[in-house]
Every structure is written in structure tokens, then in C-alpha cells.
Write a structure and sequence with these properties.
By secondary structure, the protein is α/β, with parallel strands linked by helices. The chain has helices at about 5-15, 40-50, 95-100, 115-135, 140-150, 150-180, 205-215, 235-240, 240-250; strands at about 20-25, 55-65, 85-95, 105-110, 195-200, 220, 225-230. The chain folds into 2 domains: about 5-145, 3-Layer(aba) Sandwich (Aspartate Aminotransferase, domain 2), CATH 3.40.640; about 150-250, Aspartate Aminotransferase, domain 1 (Alpha-Beta Complex). Helices cover about 45% and strands about 15% of the residues. It is built from 9 helices and 7 strands; from the N terminus they run αβαββαβαααβαββαα. α6 (about 150-180) packs across α9.
């Protein structure tokens, strides 16, 4: 589960020594674990932040890049209710996932605050930062986004395709997680999304990568874990994968 105790301790520790505190959450469908916070966990986070605002200014950035592939209803209401004036919430969106167009890096951020002054400062900072760092996002991406969302027929087709791909992901992950359970392969808590993370120990990341390649498994190794991209593995290749990973980990750990 989301470790609210550790989160609170870390927030308070930093809030006591910093004037400003920035917190980034990748929720729902966290990359790389596939974890999605529950409503009670979101409420717990916001309670902690409201209390910590007595110590410093806080900016909470919630990255919802994978939201359209979440298996549950997305409810963000608790992120922006009863906000202290020095708590700024920013919801960030990425088109490359939801619109299935990797590389067209088009995104947006929605700022939420109870303070008009804070929103005005955010707007000024965003304008100057964007213009000075990258100026404009790709025109092709902006055009594609506008053409789809402003056309009811195209937007409806997008939602159908998203639903199809979300179901495809669920089929793949169900197969893998069921087989992982049957061979006692440990995974980090997965709810939905593109990735599943399998922890390992007593072997270096480099050696694990080599052992995986020997079995024609090409994935990303993060410190002490394998990030499995179920978004890019055909369903027929999912079968037996958990057992192979279990054998590799067991043999070398």
C-alpha cells in the first residue's frame, strides 16, 4: 500500500528546513509499478499536506499520463478540496499515451489553488519558463489533438480504441499475474497500467540484464527490479514468462 506514515515523516522533515516543497505523484497507473492510489490514500495525502502547509509552501504535481488506462473510475475531487492558500495543486496530462502517439510530446497542466495571487504567479512563471526553455510544443501534435477532441465522431472513436487497448492490457496482466502467483514470483502491487515491476536481490543489475538477454527477454532494469512493459508484449508471449523470470531469479539469487 501507499506508505502514508513514511510520506508524512518525509514531508514534515523537509517542510521544517525548506521554504518551498514540491511533491510529484504519478497516479493512477504508476510507472513503473502499475500502482494506483485508493480514495482513502489520496485523502490521507491531502490531510498531511494541509497540515504541513503551516510549515512551508507546498506544490503537489500529479502526473496523470496513464489515466485513460486505469481500470477504475478516476476521482480527483479530493486533490483540490479545502486547499490552504499556500498549497498549489498541478494536474499534468500527456497526450502521447492517451492518444497513442509516442514522440509527439504534447501535454498540459491544470493549476488549482484557493488563491488568485498564486494562480497569477503560476501563469506568469509558466509563460516565461515555457517560452525560454522550449518555446512551443510540436505543431503536429497540437493539430492532431484539436482535430480529435473538437470532432465528436473522432473523439468517440478514440474512446473506443482506448477501451479496446485497456481491455488488451488487462488480459495480458491477468495472465502474467495469475501465472506469477502460481510460481510464487513476487511483484510489486499492480492495479493497472503499462508496467509491472518484479523485485530481485543478491545479484547485480548488470548481471540480471545479461541473464534476461540469454533468455531473449529484453526489458529495463531499475535498481533491484525488472520493469516489465506489458504494453509491448503480445499476449501469446506472456504465457510462461512468469515461470521463466522466476527460474532466472531463483537460479541467480
Amino acid at each position: 500500500k501507499f506508505d502514508l506514515v513514511n510520506f508524512e515523516n518525509s514531508v514534515i522533515e523537509l517542510a521544517k528546513i525548506q521554504k518551498n516543497l514540491v511533491i510529484v505523484l504519478n497516479n493512477p497507473c504508476h510507472n513503473p509499478t502499475g500502482y494506483t492510489m485508493s480514495t482513502s490514500e489520496v485523502k490521507g495525502v491531502m490531510e498531511i499536506l494541509r497540515a504541513a502547509c503551516s510549515l512551508c509552501n507546498i506544490i503537489l504535481i500529479n502526473d496523470i499520463a496513464y489515466m485513460d488506462f486505469n481500470n477504475k473510475v478516476n476521482n480527483f475531487r479530493d486533490f483540490y478540496q479545502d486547499l490552504p492558500s499556500n498549497l498549489l495543486v498541478i494536474i499534468t496530462f500527456s497526450m502521447s499515451k492517451s492518444f497513442c502517439c509516442y514522440g509527439l510530446r504534447v501535454g498540459a497542466q491544470i493549476a488549482i489553488s484557493s488563491s488568485t495571487e498564486t494562480i497569477n504567479s503560476f501563469l506568469d512563471a509558466s509563460l516565461y519558463t515555457c517560452r525560454s526553455v522550449w518555446s512551443n510544443i510540436p505543431k503536429g501534435g497540437m493539430t492532431l489533438f484539436s482535430n480529435i477532441v473538437l470532432d465528436k465522431k473522432k473523439y468517440k472513436q478514440l474512446l473506443l480504441e482506448q477501451s479496446y487497448m485497456k481491455n488488451m492490457l488487462k488480459e495480458r496482466t491477468d495472465i502474467f499475474l495469475d501465472e506469477a502467483a502460481s510460481v510464487n514470483l513476487k511483484t510489486l502491487p499492480y492495479k493497472s497500467g503499462f508496467f509491472i515491476t518484479i523485485p530481485f536481490d543478491n545479484i547485480s543489475d548488470e548481471k540480471m540484464a545479461d541473464k534476461l538477454k540469454d533468455e531473449n527477454i529484453f526489458t529495463i532494469i531499475i535498481p533491484g527490479a525488472i520493469r516489465l512493459a506489458v504494453c509491448s508484449i503480445p499476449k501469446y508471449k506472456i504465457y510462461g514468462l512468469a515461470k521463466t523470470l522466476k527460474n532466472i531469479i531463483t537460479t541467480n539469487c
